[in-house]
Amino acid sequence: MPDHDSALLGVSGSGTDWPADLLELYGTHWAPMVRLARLLTAADAASEEIVQEAFLRVRTKWATIDTPPAYLRAAVVNGCRNHQRRRLLERRHPAAEQIVADAPDEMRGAIAALPARQRAALVLRFYEDLPEGEIAELLHCSVSAVKSLLHRAVGDLRKVIER
Predict the structure, then answer these.
(1) Contacts of 10 (CB under 8 A, 6+ apart)
(2) Alpha-carbon gap, residue 155 to 159, rounded angstroms
(3) Domain 102-163 in the same topology as domain 1-101
(4) In whole angstroms, what is the distance from residue 40 CA to residue 61 CA?
(5) Structural class in CATH, domain 102-163
(6) Do residues 36 and 73 touch, judged by C-beta distance below 8 A?
(7) Where along the chain do its domains lie?
(8) Is the whole-model pTM more than 0.85?
(9) Rounded-to-integer distance, Cα 153 and Cα 159, Å
(10) Which is nearest to 80 in space by CA: 139, 144, 8, 5?
């Protein structure tokens, strides 16, 4: 693992208590999870932080996790959900400072403009290629709700693309 990755995990030298399997998971899933977080939150700065916190949660439960990649993905999705809640609170309270990011490309901007649940369903389905059942579990809703969210999200994106 590169030194940069070791620094992110807080790992230094060979006397670490991080299991080798967890370090391998980190090496293979860091970039895809950051991409997932960026797509779900539309916030570049927060995405790496969300993923880092998810890996720390995985570390605390490592001995009891049956499927670490699925647990990690769920931790990232939940972290993104919490981030969205914080953003909503910040918007409701005008005194809170807001960081305005550079305008993203048209498609990313269109995805970012979707309501949070539609964006989450869309990203999990088409970027993470998850089945609707798994998306329903992650979003705590029914499969039919996921289908409805996807239908509305694709319709909204189609309007932007046709412009």
Answers:
(1) none
(2) 6
(3) no
(4) 24
(5) mainly alpha
(6) yes
(7) 1-101, 102-163
(8) no
(9) 10
(10) 139
Query: Span 1-101: which CATH code?
Result: 1.10.1740
Task: Spell out the residues 6+ positions from residue 129 whose beta carbon is closer than 8 angstroms to its own.
Answer: none
- The tokens of 18 are what? 């991080």
Identify the sign of the CA torsion 92, 156, 117, 129.
negative
103-161 pLDDT, tens per residue?
Answer: 346 677 788 888 888 988 988 888 888 899 999 998 899 999 999 999 999 998 888 77
**Structure tokens given for 99:** 């960081």
- Reading the block at residue 162, the tokens are 């046709």
Among 48, 44, 42, which residue's Cα sits nearest to residue 26?
Answer: 48
DSSP H/E element including 89: helix 68-92
Residue 33, CA atoms < 13 Å, CB-side half-sphere: 27
> Quick one: pLDDT band at residue 89, thresholds 50, 70, 90?
low
